[in-house]
Amino acid sequence: RVLTFPRCVIFLSLLGLLLVGGGLNEVVWLRKCVESRHKRSWVWNQFFVLEEYTGEEPLYVGKLHSDVDKGDGKVKYVLSGEGSTSIFTIDENTGDIHATKRLDREEQAYYTLQAQAVDRLTNIPVEPRSEFVVKVQDINDNEPKFLDGPYMAGVPEMSALGTTVVQVAATDADDPTYGNSARVVYSIISGQPYFSVDPKTGVIRTALPNMDREVKDQYVLVIQAKDMVGQMGGLSGTTSVTVTLTDVNDNPPRFSRKNYQYMVLESLPVASVVARVKALDNDIGPNAEMEYRIMEDGPGVFNITTDEDTQEGVIILQKPLDFETKNSFNLRIEATNRNIDPAFVHLGSFSDTTSVKVTVEDVNEPPVFSTQLSKMVVSEDARVGISIGRVSAHDPDSSNSAIRYSIDRNTDLERFFNVDALSGVISTAKPLDREVNSVHNLTILAMESHDPTQVGKGFAVITVLDINDNPPVFAIEYETLLCENAAPGQVIQTISAVDKDEPPSGHRFYFALPPSVAGNSNFTLRDNKDNTASIVTKRGGFRRREQVLYRLPVLIVDSGSPALSSTNTLSVSVCDCDSDGVAQSCGAVAYTLPAGLSTGALVAILGCIITLLGKNNHDLLLLMIPLRLNQLSNK
Question: Which stretch is the leader sequence (predicted)?
């Protein structure tokens, strides 16, 4: 470029590194200022200075010169701006500019400076201030760097050739717009022949098909990035890429043995573990999960589930074992992968089978009742010692020991029953009462004669049958009220009865008045034929002053065989009632006598009243005699 400067010549020096016979040469360009149309107007281009200069002398950058300068020392050159004192210096007499420090383009790519020529004596500018740029020229002094390394990546095993694994990227701090210092290419240093890398994009791909995780599951690659387009003399950097082959379901389950044998006691409780079997699978995780099933012999007796932690098949007892019935089982067990990948079904079946023989060992078992629950009935009037029923138990073992029976007295605390130790016959030991206890639940024990530790349990439910041994009585204690104004034929009470007995066809009660009162003139009884009866007045005109309480005997008969009866007394109180028939006051009537009677008169009146009470069977009669206090005190 041509620099134009009025009445001046500017010399620019650019250091270039050229490989000439293996040495360094200095190349200097001399550029003249071309006078512009406007006088004293400076038009500048850029100065260039090479970065990383390591010479002992300051680096010459360029020269300023004004045509006002006649060489007599009257003109002084002044430099200001970025680094004008710390990095760049100017000879105020000659205008020569030097760089005193090593420059790094990656730290700062250019510097903006101002130049001015002034009169040395007056410091008055002889040229206007003008701005120029010193640009730091790049050299290849930075190697490529992988900022995201080291890398971790995964690819499914058995992947096809050319499957993308991961992309790596390196950066170069050199100037990408100048030369090839920042142009990077990629190559693989370690990891062949399994993987390759695209030299331009850094994309890593599989270089072999069908790599098997079960053979080798991890690879460590070393990737290089080199600048100068990979040419000799370029700088390089490396990173590692750890590639893990992820699992696919490409291996079927296999039992390590084709036959298993296990021994179990016939007393093994239901839901207990009988045995464990395991099919091995070279895959991992969900691809190695198993499902087991029993194919032959024993699906009803045994069940098999998968232990999710160990992937074992757990054989569990579902029903009780009996050596005497069946002493061995031959199971056929199948193991199948739970998650099958359709892409690999062509490799074969993803299941396997094995045989499991379970041998049942005999144990000494307690006696077993032929009927675990025996139901018996007995009448509550059965005599003591009568036989009710019989229980039976046997020894299930081949020894067939003799059995002795007994009653668990915790279930028969009052000892109502006995059991014959040899025959198992149950009989009554005490009189029974159905109304006290209608059902007895007994636990019967059966013990081997030669081994008392072997005890079996059975149960007997004895129901006591009812007999008619309880008479009927009033259902409740009645309180019957009779209004003084009651009319003849009025129902004053409806009664019912209860009976502790429970006849099979239900209760039927009959009501009547005993012959001794059947002809009374006050009340009658009407049997309603529904286990109730109504008490009805035969007359009106009842007066409390005449009689306050009537006692009416009632005869109640049940329908038992033989029938039982009882006589119950109904109390009827005479009451003063309102117009609606609601009782206002019942019982005794208060008599008021005038005050001032003599003591003798009072005694005579009381005697008459007592006589009247005796005749009319009154319970109580109150006399209200107002007395003056002085009368009482005088007598």
Answer: none
